[in-house]
Specification:
single chain, 338 residues, alpha/beta, Trna Endonuclease, Chain: A, domain 1, 2 domains, 6-stranded mixed β-sheet, 14 helices, 54% helix
Length: 338
């Protein structure tokens, strides 16, 4: 009797292997094409800058040279030479004068977004995060708008800020996963006149991919309203995650308005339970994060005293931060560190 190949495990394994090779090949081709485009634009930018530095721009074309270039190159070579694109092609070379410093993992669209940043520390951070976390252009845009670099940097000293800019966000200890504040603009709740804690929780889960991006690398979603039963009484934890890098559970409790001292006690209670009942071999101490609109620092200071668990308090806001204010705060911080 003839063998049915579709039921043969070795044959199916062959099909799977061929599919994996095809995907790897497509990824390699795409990366090679992207790399070729970026290096081509870099070389074009080099010629433009050298032309300017020789005095030709001032002598023959004046300030209108980019417009002339855009029109002439488009007429001769077709699309890809809008004035904005020619501007960024020129800026690519000026920002990365050594071609070896161009990332081989990023597309031209990534570089266009990065070139919008004037601060070299900020630009270096986002480039490293794109490489390390494999951000697409959409993710990069969102993190730049939410000012992730400044939010992370303001909780560090100057040496750590320089390391952050050079290496990206490195997760080594529980404090490394925290942000101040968390930005939840993607929930759509700012448009509602009234919302409850449950509405925020539901909106975060409904926009899980955006929520995980805001939380940062390493988070794996487990569930919401996770039930625990102690002595016949039920308790529910708003959101539970597992952190793949730190190898621990992360419990998040959401509070509308001010965080109260009893919220700290409740989270400490949850952490004790997870440490004793949910942890398995290889798991590290669980982490608890209480998120609210605001907090009284003195109240939190007393509430957090003598707590040995990994428990943190932070704020969230439902709108993007004011860039000018946050940048000014960041620069004052760097100056004070000096």
């Amino acid at each position: 009797m003839a063998t049915n190949l579709s039921e043969n495990s070795q044959y199916n394994s062959l099909i799977t292997t061929i599919g994996e090779v095809l995907e790897q090949g497509k990824a390699y081709v795409l990366q090679t094409v992207n790399q070729g485009i970026v290096q081509t634009y870099w070389a074009i930018g080099k010629h433009i800058v050298e032309f300017e530095q020789a005095g030709n721009e001032k002598a023959e074309y004046g300030s209108d040279m980019l417009n002339r270039l855009s029109n002439d190159l488009t007429a001769r070579y077709g699309k890809g030479f809008s004035r904005a694109n020619v501007f960024y092609i020129r800026k690519l070379y000026m920002t990365y004068p050594k071609v070896q410093t161009l990332s081989k993992l990023l597309s031209w669209s990534h570089f266009v977004e990065l070139l919008k940043l004037d601060d070299p520390l900020e630009r270096s951070f986002y480039q490293k995060e794109c490489e390390n976390a494999h951000w697409g252009v959409r993710e990069l845009k969102r993190q730049m708008k939410s000012m992730l670099f400044q939010r992370l940097a303001l909780s560090k000293n100057k040496d750590e800020v320089l390391k952050l800019a050079q290496d990206g966000q490195i997760i080594e200890k529980p404090e490394d996963i925290l942000k101040e504040p968390y930005i939840f603009e993607f929930t759509g709740l700012p448009q509602l006149p009234v919302y409850q804690e449950g509405d925020l929780e539901a909106a975060l889960v409904e926009n899980l991919s955006q929520f995980l991006l805001e939380l940062g690398k390493g988070f794996a979603y487990i569930g919401r309203q996770q039930n625990i039963n102690i002595a016949g009484r039920n308790y529910k934890i708003d959101l539970v995650f597992y952190h793949r890098i730190l190898k621990c559970f992360v419990l998040i409790d959401l509070k509308k308005g001010e965080i109260q001292h009893e919220d700290i006690g409740q989270m400490n209670f949850y952490l004790n339970y997870y440490r004793e009942e949910m942890n398995t071999q290889g798991d590290n101490e669980p982490i608890g994060i209480v998120l609210g609109n605001y907090q009284d620092k003195l109240v939190m200071q007393y509430a957090m005293q003598n707590i040995s668990n990994q428990l943190f308090v932070s704020q969230y806001q439902l709108y993007l931060p004011n860039r000018e204010q946050l940048e000014n705060e960041f620069h004052r911080f760097l100056q004070s560190e000096e």
